[in-house]
Amino acid sequence: MTRHCWKCGWEWTLPGQPGRGDSCHRCNSDLRVCLNCVSYDQRSAQQCRDRRADPVFDKHMGNFCEYFDIVRRVFTPPGNANPRESSARDQLKKLFGD
Question: Where do the structural domains in the chain lie, given as residue ranges?
């Protein structure tokens, strides 16, 4: 379990939390983003389990949330959706002719 960039997996080894202006040294993505927070949950309202936090609409961009806490997890590249979700999307595309 590591603290890492949500996009490329570069490991955050510095003590403490990344600041608003901190970015990944490999891909230059913001690190203080909802996608890197322990409270981020796709199934929750506004995709955040912390009810005190203000809604953030761009989950991949840096924000000023005062409840941010970088998550420790195993890195999985974005876009690796579960097969059930991707098959449902494929069926919808086929239905609508996309």
Answer: 1-98
Which residues lie below 8 Å from residue 10, measured CB to CB, with a gap of 6+?
Answer: 4, 24, 25, 26, 27
pLDDT per residue as tens digits for the range 14-62: 888 998 889 999 999 999 999 999 999 989 889 999 999 999 999 999 9
Say how far residue 19 (Cα) sits from the centre of its chain: 16
Pick from 26, 4, 18: nearest CA to 64? 18
Q: What is the pTM of this model?
A: 0.74
With vertex at residue 77, the alpha carbon angle to CA 72 and CA 82, rounded to the nearest 5 degrees, is 100
